[in-house]
Amino acid sequence: MKKPDFRRWRAAALVGIALTGVVVTGPSAAYAGQPARHSGDLDLRVAVGVNGVDTVRIHAERYVPAGKVRGVQVMVPGATYDHHYFDLGGGGVVSQARQAAREGWLVIALDRVGTGKSSKPPAASVTTAVQVASIDHFVDRIDAMYRGLPIALVGHSYGSVVAEGVAARSDKVDALVVTGFLYRRTAPSFDGFPELVPAATDPVLGREKFPADYLTTSPGSRKFFYHLPNADPATVAADERTKSATTAAEVPGFTEELVGRAFAKAVRVPVLVVVGEEDYLYRGNDPAAFEPDQRSAFAAAADVRVVLIPGAGHDLALHRNAPFTTMVINWWASSAVA
User: Fold this and answer.
1) What is an example of a Pfam family matching this protein (predicted)?
2) pLDDT of 169-192, one tens digit each?
3) Domain boundary assignment for the chain
């Protein structure tokens, strides 16, 4: 693991000012608003070696800044999402990946196993152990490709659980950003969570020939992931058009980490936790316990910072205030890997 200068980033990482609405300092002049390009596909075959899965192909989309590069952000989407969560593409909708690239990051937004253009083993084999092992080896390949650049893992929802698992075992990860996932003393409510239906019969995914027993959200139900007063209907519609799949075998990994915290306990690198104030996972939580609970969960981490984003639901990257959320993440990550 590369050693960041903690004195430099500790002062800069006071991103809790997001709670008060104070305007933060923007990116430095060396990076602010620089051009960036979407350089297209990146496909890597990596080893797995668990649950009967030997190797898989991981597909990703790459976004490259035109000028000086701060480091690499590897973005890991959640259940029923692929890389499109970080870049819905076109139509004026927000793009966390493109904004991060404009702010100086080389961005790798991937499709987890079982989603997008990545390998789709039998559904029973698409477990959290497979996700963690495959992305761990994927990060090794990225580190070899971009030798010397620090790596920040950025997860969302179930993708945050996977990113935690990778950060817990990898010596190539320098910082971890957890979004849409948190630890709490009381169980969260899943009331209203979308029904999961067979991907093979879904109007969007049916033509993609998913293997048997892959699942996705029922048509028109993804608004659950939004605080609708702060969401553009065009974004919600684009989300439905680009949705992906999950499997029942992934669910235990999410629950086990929420309760047992095994990955979090093993993370040593700096951690930023970002959650929407209207996220269903945060609903009913004691606000005073939010920060202490995250610090307790990541007890061995070099440092832990938490930010609650007003007016945002579960899909932080897809709300109208997503550019602010992304700026906070990029600012913190830049300081954490400096």
Assistant:
1) Abhydrolase_6
2) 999 999 999 999 999 999 999 999
3) 6-336
